[in-house]
Write a structure and sequence with these properties.
A hairpin with a 5-residue loop joins strand 7 and strand 8. The strands form 3 sheets. A 4-stranded mixed sheet has the order 3-2-5-6. Strands 1-4 form a two-stranded antiparallel ribbon. The protein contains 26 helices and 8 strands.
């Protein structure tokens, strides 16, 4: 049987689910936290000329309403929906917005810029500034007279002190954020052109190591700590010996082993360890770094007459609406199809943004209300009453998909009478109890912390001992899990917590 090849056309019926632009925008807006949402609105105001800031008027208190249904929006014509935009804009944020205090006499953006903290001084900038302020006599005291330099160094430059200061800058920019010298002097020497003599680089490093903060320019932890000790006029012979030869044992709290190796008492080792503990192992961290990211709670929870009231904070959001000018322009643009099409696209986008913001606020409030209802024990009594909770449980109670819960709480914070928490904090796993109930992970960690805080420091609790104590409270948990929780909280082992 021969099969012929050829082209043909066939009709098939398929059901394909696609997301409309409105749904894409709604999901995108739902994921944004308060700061990102404010920035997004500002961007839309710049890019969509049909959007404008509404005048500050005091909204009437009214319960949040559902956003207009997409199916109904499809059934209505664009012109019919057009008539409702003005009223829709007036109602926007009515459930949570208060009267603005802006009086029109201040430039709020300029005021915010004036109150914004400047970029922090970097470690390199701080060190380089000190080098430029060094007096010639002080440099001579640190590096010795020029006659002590090698013949190669004398031939390298006519002014050795100036050459050392120039090399100090090269050394400074080879120091990492911790304050440690990243490369050997030989490696730094090879990277420079012309290649300076090694003794000049050594002198430059000595100058840098004399700068503030103490310990800067150390090649490892030991040198960093020794540099700090040697800044003090007092001598620390025991401390120096421990740092030079027994730093690892000190980190694991093996004080008797150190005492035996040095031929001193455990009490002398303890006194030296207290002095070493006052030193800074990361001196570079005092400078530079990134400014702390601001956290602005999206949800506010207040206790009023014994009940918790939930509201989504909208005071920070610019109140926007569709411009009446462009609404009128659209109505009179019948003779210009291109203009009418363009305006329809822009006004549609503005309407979708307003609906997406409104839906975000409503969804976030409903989820937050369920969290407060479920975790009211935590709000009343603290972490020990935090309940285990999964997103699917809240999704079923709110009537949305679990992915909506995940998007809604992502990167968002809730301000409660007990402090500000990420909304993800209220979702937690747990361990089974003998009566069949489950205790939340955060509650178990707090129990472990309480046990360790009250232990006998001369005979601290091992992880097995903590497992036994938890079992007395009907909590079944393995030693491995206790170890995982303890290490996650940066709590040392029982050997390292022991006090001699």
């Amino acid at each position: 049987m021969r099969m012929e090849l050829g082209l043909s056309q066939h009709q098939t019926i398929k059901q394909i689910q696609t997301l409309s632009p409105q749904m894409y925008m709604s999901m995108e807006i739902l994921c944004l936290n308060s700061l990102d949402l404010e920035e997004r609105i500002e961007t839309e105001l710049e890019n969509n000329e049909t959007l404008e800031l509404a005048e500050a008027t005091k909204p009437e208190e009214a319960p949040a309403q559902e956003a207009p249904q997409t199916t109904q929006a499809k059934e209505d014509s664009f012109e019919r929906r057009f008539e409702g935009w003005e009223e829709y804009g007036r109602e926007e944020y009515a459930s949570a917005r208060r009267l603005s205090s802006y009086d029109g006499e201040k430039d709020e953006k300029l005021e915010a810029l004036n109150n914004t903290e400047g970029r922090p001084t970097s470690l390199q900038e701080h060190l380089e500034e000190q080098v430029h302020l060094l007096e010639r006599e002080e440099i001579l005291r640190l590096v010795g007279p020029p006659e002590s330099l090698s013949n190669e160094a004398k031939a390298f430059c006519s002014d050795p002190l100036k050459a050392i200061l120039d090399l100090c800058v090269d050394v400074i920019y080879n120091i990492d954020s911790r304050g440690y010298l990243m490369y050997s002097l030989e490696a730094i020497q090879e990277s420079l052109d012309p290649k300076p003599p090694l003794d000049l680089l050594q002198k430059a490093l000595a100058v840098v190591q004399s700068l503030d903060p103490p310990g800067i320019g150390g090649r490892d932890l030991r040198e960093c700590l020794l540099l700090q000790l040697r800044r003090d006029k007092q001598e620390y012979p025991v401390e120096e010996k421990i740092i030079e030869g027994h730093l690892e044992e000190l980190g694991h709290n093996r004080l008797p082993k150190i005492a035996k190796a040095l031929g001193i008492t455990v009490d002398e080792v303890k006194a030296a360890a207290e002095t070493i503990a006052c030193l800074n192992p990361l001196p570079g961290n005092l400078y530079g770094g990134e400014a702390a990211r601001s956290v602005k709670p999206d949800v506010l929870v207040d206790e009023v007459e014994g009940k918790y009231e939930v509201r989504v904070d909208s005071d920070y959001l610019p109140r926007i609406q569709v411009s009446s000018h462009y609404r009128d322009l659209y109505k009179t643009a019948k003779s210009d199809p291109d203009l009418k099409k363009y305006l329809k696209k822009k006004i549609d986008s503005a309407e979708w943004l307003l609906a997406a913001i409104r839906q975000r606020q409503l969804t976030l409030r409903r989820i937050a209300q369920e969290l407060v209802d479920i975790q009211s024990g935590f709000l009343d009594h603290g972490i020990s009453h935090l309940k285990p909770l999964k997103m699917v449980e809240v999704a079923e109670r709110v009537g949305v998909h679990v992915s909506t819960i995940s998007r809604a709480i992502s990167g968002k914070y809730m301000q409660t009478p007990r402090g500000i928490f990420p909304m993800k904090f209220f979702f937690s796993g747990g361990a089974s109890k003998s009566d069949g109930t489950v205790e939340a992970r955060g509650s178990i960690i707090q129990r472990i912390k309480d046990f360790i805080a009250g232990e006998d420091k001369s005979n601290p609790l091992s992880d097995i001992d903590i497992v036994k104590k938890l079992s007395e409270s009907s909590i079944k948990i393995s030693r491995r899990t206790v170890t995982k929780y303890r290490e996650a909280e940066s709590i040392p082992s029982s050997r390292e917590r022991r006090s001699y």
